[in-house]
Amino acid sequence: MSGLLDALRGTLTAPAPGGVRLDGYLALEDYGALGDGRSVALSGADGSIDWWCVPNLDSPPLFDRLLDPEEGGRFVVTPTDSFTVERRYRPDSNVLETVFTTATGSAKLTESMNSGTAGRLPWAELGRRIEGLSGSMCFRMEMRPGRRADGASPYHSTIGKHAVFHVGSVLGLLLHSDGIAVARTDEAVTAEFTVANGQREVVAIVAGEDEPLVVPTIDRIDERIDTSDAEWRAWSDRVEHNGPHRAAFIRSVLALKLLLFSPSGAIAAAATTSLPEGVGGHKNYDYRYAWIRDAGYTIKAFLAAGAQAEAKAAFSWLLKRLAEHGARVCYTLDGAVVPGLREIEVPGYRRSTPVQVGNAATDQHQHGIYGDIFETAARFVACGNILDASSAELLSHLADQCADAWRKKDAGIWELEEPQHYTMSKVSCWQALARAVELADEGQLPTTCRERWSRERDRIAGWIDEHCWSEPKQAFVFYPGSDRLDASLALMVRFGFDGRERLEKTLDAIDAELGAGPYHYRYSDVAAEEGCFLACTFWMVEARALLGQRDRAEQSLVAITRAIDRGVGVMSEMADPRSGAFLGNLPQGLSHLAHVMALDVLAAEDDC
């Protein structure tokens, strides 16, 4: 399969018409993601940065054109003439390159959320370098801060010799090379400039919130673009994966790294809010929070990559939140309880509303949190690590809670409004107690309740086999008494649930009923509301490989890889199976981590 995953390797794409906007919107697959361990910016194929929350992932956006094409904030560096585009990430890096070609020449835009040799900078620094490659090219530059849905009115002031912009409590500077002459108003900074072959210009933003602002030289910012690239490559070089698709594996691990909020260790589910799961629909959610499920799976992906420091930081953060707030579904990146929903009065991506912050899952209960945290603990220990006494005590209490609560209905892995005895939720409870018993047997947990956990584990397994299997469907179903299917049940294979024949038949039923070309829907009867869920397809690839169906796993991987070959390797949550257009928030951690785990399993099979 050598070369099959070039789509995710960060190589240059074929030239394409540059930055085609439909009613002011770029396709989601036309965005690349930049990050520094604190926030993520989305840069479009037309040179417009349309999303950047400053200074943190969950701060109000400084640029929000993604959700408001007419009035939203943006930072544009784009040719004034018609152009084609070639884009890539630098190999093994989160520094992004865009090559523009016009009738008069070509030029390269290199973009980075900068870091230093000692790690993340204590301020936000976005650097953009424009280099002439041939002929000459005229560029238009516009830096227009967003108005926070008319909750703030940006303005400029002069402090010392610097023109400073203000948006609410955010203070920032637009810095630029001497060759760029700018015009300023309170609302925007604009310029036009030309680069010829061999010429270089740089524009950059440094910003902070309620803190003194450092003013670096533009030359130092320019240097840090390459420093950041070197640091990304040094980090990637330490990734432990020797399969045939190492570059593709690293590309997804790098995307996950962007979602690790370094000030706390939290892992955000995605970097955006309210990007629709179906254009014009209402499934528009804020994913800039840390879910137990997503964080737990991401930790496992980091461990698979040998990224021990990131995994430990995230695992410790999760355990502290569970101890502080109890077994909740999700938390804010600084460890608080996620607020309830609040709507924002902006048009939304492709006019899909509501646009909102907060998340309704904050008040739900999902049994999946038990399985997720115990699977994370088990993987952490399997990598040769040790649980401390307080963590072991916390996990023991959670196992007791799980043993008591598993018979109750819950919201399920998909956070549905109707509580049910979802099969996947019962599997998660079985998984939690199975891992708890294993950890106790290894001396990682106290053994006081070990026998109780073991008996309850077996009762859950028996209940699932008796109530959740459908003879007519020849599959485990969504919940007892239903004839609907749930693609997340492919994870039963990863979790080690017994019964190979039933698991194989369930996978076949999922393919038959929920498959749509190379993609899969999450569950039955959802096609009218949303696209196909990318993680589900990678879970199916992983499950097939674990069951020894190597050829089917590889065929599915080839098909989904070709289908998502639409950008620079940044995956969204979903895709429209008819057009292939990306849907949902991005970068989507669940998509990338499922991709990582599928490649990890296939690489392990190669080693066997």
From TrEMBL:
Lineage, top-rank taxon, reads Bacteria
- One example GO MF annotation: hydrolase activity
Annotated ranges, domain Trehalase-like N-terminal: 29-115
Q: Per its UniProt record, what Pfam families does this chain match?
A: Glyco_hydro_15 (PF00723), TREH_N (PF19291)
GH15-like domain residues are 244-545
Provide the alphabetized UniProt keywords. Answer: Hydrolase
Please give the PANTHER family that the UniProt record associates with this protein. GLUCAN 1,4-ALPHA-GLUCOSIDASE, TREHALASE
Q: What is this protein called?
A: Glycoside hydrolase family 15 protein
Please tell me the species this chain comes from: Sphingomonas citri
Origin organism lineage:
Bacteria, Pseudomonadati, Pseudomonadota, Alphaproteobacteria, Sphingomonadales
